[in-house]
Amino acid sequence: MQCQRLGASVDWERLYFTMDNNLTVAVKEAFVRLHERGLIYRANRLVNWSCKMKTALSDIEVEYVELAGPTKMKIPGHEGEYTFGVLESFSYKVEGSEEEIVIATTRLETMLGDVAVAVNSKDTRYTHLVGKYLVHPFCDRRLPIITDDALVDMSFGTGAVKITPAHDPNDFECGARHNLPQVNIFTDDGLINSNGGRFAGLRRFDARVLLQEELRKLNQYKGVSSNPMRLGLCSRSKDVIEPLMRPQWYVNCQEIAKVMLAKHESKELVIVPEDYGKLWTGWMSNIKDWCISR
């Protein structure tokens, strides 16, 4: 329909989909050839995951909504409404001590996958705690207190950041720098898995609500505040996107991007209108490998 509206002059009676039976031989042949050349590969990475669709989405399939503050929303697969656009604070107790570290997060449920807490090495509030451990209140897990100046801005919030490598891109990079484990807490359809302890089986946002209650009982829930934010939604189902570690197939786009940049620079490739050349250069300069698992 979109191609027809653009005025594409093609034979619409010869319309095919790449997974049609009469095309599968060619598709498999192309896949194998690209794999043998190292241009298609499999990797376990964080992806934009739709729990409703049970699939990974490309960046362009994620729609962002701007939330000015606390906003009630209905979520596919859940009942009732849930509040987004807030920052919730809770504490972790220092092992063998009466001290605690307060953490602020927009995704309280992901604390079930926390593996460490990071502070800035220059932050004198936490210098005496670096190298010690925090006690997770719900999981049989000790969380080391580490320093990561690339991640932690000590002037923002409490200056302490929860690290959940399996559910956040920045935490994933921090985890790689410090060789931290990746603890996934979600099933493909967004339920808490066995890594979530007694919260296993709950829908992710139901778990968020219950965690608030349980932390209050422990006097470790420290409050909630307004937090303007961008929330990513699946463009088709309107489900809230979850960054999840999943093995996926990727096409290596780096080499072809270099070729196309060179062709544009040499004027062998001409972009019309010319102003869109800057957009093309931006795309090719920041290209990511293409997830083709869908």
The appropriate CATH architecture of the domain at 86-227 is Alpha-Beta Complex
- Unreliable spans are none
CATH level 3 topology of the domain at 86-227? Isoleucyl-tRNA Synthetase, domain 2
Oligomeric state, counting identical vs distinct chains: single chain
Radius of gyration: 23 Å
CATH class of the domain at 86-227: Alpha Beta
End-to-end separation: 21 Å
Secondary-structure element pattern, one letter each: HHEEEEEEEEEEEHHEEEHHE
Tally of alpha and pi helices: 6
What are the main properties of this structure?
294 residues; alpha+beta; Isoleucyl-tRNA Synthetase, domain 2; seven-stranded mixed β-sheet; 6 helices
What does this structure look like?
Strand 1 (40-50) and strand 2 form a beta hairpin. The strands form four sheets. Strands 6, 7, 8, 9, 10, 11 and 12 form a seven-stranded mixed sheet that branches. A four-stranded antiparallel sheet has the order 2-1-14-15. Strands 3-13 form a two-stranded antiparallel ribbon. Helices cover 21% and strands 29% of the residues. The protein is built from six helices and 15 strands. The protein is of the alpha+beta class and 294 residues long.
